[in-house]
Amino acid sequence: RADVLTIGEAMVTVRCAGPLRLGGDSRVSTAGAEANVAIALSRLGHTARWAGALGSDEPGELVLRTLRAEGVLTDHVVRRTDAPTGLLLRDTAAGGRARVHYYRRDSAASTLSWEEVRPAVEAGQAGLHLTGITPALGPAPLEAVAAATRQAHRSGAWVSLDVNHRSLLWSREAAARALRPLLPYVTVLIASDDELDLVADGDGERDRVAALLDAGVEEVVVKRGAAGASYHDARTSIDAPARTVPVVDVVGAGDAFTAGYLSGRLDGLDAYGRLERATLLGAASVACAGDWEGLPTRAELPALALPEGETLR
Ligand code: KDG
User: Fold this and answer.
1) Is the pLDDT of residue 21 over 90?
2) Percentage of residues of the chain with pLDDT beyond 90
3) Which of 7, 118, 160, 177 could staple 188 via S-S, CB 3.0–4.6 A?
4) Does residue 82 carry a catalytic annotation?
5) Dihedrals φ, ψ of 221, to 5°?
């Protein structure tokens, strides 16, 4: 039995130092929001299982090898011979902004079905973590996410959903239509402040949080990047500041944040402690290149809380 099951698409990433059109040096690694969360949790000593579909190709081998090396359970991963592993190219646009190019249409994950993920859900977990990316991949993954959410909820597991809106994959309206029906089964809803209106109506954050709690969500966690994060439940609202770190690579920070929150939850920390761990992990991801490479092990966690610039001896 896993502490956490995550389901989604994991891809190979090629990260270019500058604009892609100029060529030059690049780095190959893996990405995928749910896989990032699984790796982050595993590094912190939790048992994490990742379920999804990969091609029977070299990129698929790299994803599997990475997950296994990080201690993530991969016993329910589906491999396909008729569809490739997705690819994500990253480069830097004019002005220095990180830019993402997806090559994931018709990928192995784009047809991930409920029948394929069902054995992983039935293997058992304390919690199921999903993102709003998977239902954007196609009708089968949309159905898989909805069925997994209901099944996990029915079995007594908590369910966390990170809205993670990806405008390259679908519109805000389509995301709202797909995600809102999941809310009665969601225990922890995580969203950036600019994603809250996808899942709840109302004027401003207060109203939207109230609507989410009314819909059955128990904990609402709002990410504000460098401005910190907030936690809301039926009784309390808590704010926590972000850690100040040199910004190297912001992609993956949200997944690290989510994993920190869920890790704190698994450890029984109070809401402030969970937000603190979330912001620590988010900062660790921002300070290193790659989605997950810079994340701490459990033993490294206390050192993250040291003042910035201190040398570890
Ligand atoms: O959160 C980081 C993700 O954006 C990245 O790993 C790729 O899953 C990904 C996506 O769909 O953008």
Assistant:
1) yes
2) 85
3) 160
4) no
5) -120, 125
